[in-house]
Specification:
alpha+beta; 3-stranded antiparallel sheet; 12 helices; about 20% strand; binds phenylalanine; ATP binding; phenylalanine-tRNA ligase activity; aa-tRNA-synth_II; cytoplasm
Length: about 325
């Protein structure tokens, strides 16, 4: 009977203590087995009471063990793997953001400050959005400028060669005024080297409104490079794209301070970061926008190249090899 009282009082918060309590009463060599063994020596007239008492002790001890155990299990579930919250924590290994993502987020941030939203589209595109709507009809020689990976021919489905395809989708689904940038991965069938890869990343910008001029384009690009690189000088070189007229190539002056600068800019200090121009009225028409009322500009910049300059990366392949020794260097750059 004293044992029953003791069992009823018993409490603990440690799993080990519950276990030794269980062994003490219910284990093979525990008290209860001793009592049961003792039973045959008890005089007949006391057998009934003795039997009832040890049965009650057994039941009480079993219930105690069960309630203590499940209470402990619940606290463990609530507090995570460690029941004891005073234990020192274990450091979690935090990853690093990829340099492409870091630069992409910076660019999105810069353009969002002047009213551009972000739009995205599929990497697997049809012919219309990647080429035809952009003033590149079938058999147009300019299609050769973009070494395309085809997923299927006739009808043609391909890996987009530029994010201009997203601008077509955006114009088809939205009315001017339009201010949007479209970041994403693009694919071209080019030989892989330290300077070029068969996939890379672009951000294209599109601005459509009444009376948009080339001066607006130039100022927007200048604002962008100044925000991203600090005080910066840009150069627009006349060029040709089927979807813009006039068109230009955008170079930024970076300088030649390091060995990496020398290699990335081919010893000139200038780096071509993208293309731009005034959206061809034909493209506006293809996308359902009145070209009499509206005009606009578009530009596209390469994120990989900009990341290479900013982080002094001399081989573009490092950006897609997933070598943790490379990636871990961006831990503090979140
Ligand atoms: N889409 C072009 C390319 O990938 C870049 C560009 C975008 C040029 C917008 C002009 C206007 O080469």
């Amino acid at each position: 009977k004293e044992h029953i009282a003791e069992v009823e009082k018993f409490t603990t918060e440690s799993k080990e203590a519950v276990e030794s309590f269980r062994i003490k009463y219910l284990g093979k060599k525990g008290l209860l087995n001793d009592f049961f063994a003792e039973f045959k020596n008890v005089p007949n007239e006391q057998k009934k009471e003795f039997g009832q008492t040890i049965n009650k002790l057994k039941k009480t001890a079993e219930e105690k063990v069960n309630t203590l155990k499940s209470a402990l299990d619940n606290t463990t579930a609530e507090t995570g793997i460690y029941g004891d919250l005073t234990r020192p924590g274990e450091a979690t290994n935090i990853g690093a953001r990829h340099p492409i993502s870091i630069v992409k987020n910076q660019i999105i941030d810069i353009f969002s400050r002047i009213g551009f939203n972000v739009s995205e589209g599929p990497e697997i595109e049809d012919d219309w959005h990647n080429f035809t709507a952009l003033n590149l009809p079938e058999y147009h020689p300019a299609r050769d400028m973009q070494d395309t990976f085809f997923v299927q021919t006739n009808p043609d489905i391909l890996l987009r060669t530029h994010t201009s395809s997203v601008q077509v989708r955006y114009m088809e689904n939205n009315k001017p005024p339009i201010r949007t940038i479209s970041p994403g991965r693009v694919y071209r069938n080019e030989a892989i080297s330290a300077r070029s890869h068969c996939f890379f990343h672009q951000i294209e910008g599109l601005y459509i409104d009444k009376n948009v001029s080339f001066a607006d384009l130039k100022q927007t690009l200048q604002f962008f490079t100044t925000e991203l690189f600090g005080k910066s000088k840009i150069r627009l070189r006349p060029s040709y794209f089927p979807f813009t007229e006039p068109s230009a190539e955008v170079d930024v002056y970076w300088g030649l301070e390091t060995e990496a600068d020398y290699r990335i800019t081919k010893g000139t200090g200038w780096l071509e970061i993208g293309g731009c121009g005034m959206v061809d009225p034909n493209v506006l028409k293809n996308c359902g926008i009145d070209a009499e009322e509206y005009s606009g500009f578009a530009f596209g910049v390469g994120i990989d190249r900009i990341a290479m300059l900013l982080y002094q990366i001399t081989d573009i392949r490092l950006l897609s090899e997933n070598d943790v020794r490379f990636l871990e260097q961006f831990k503090s750059a979140l």
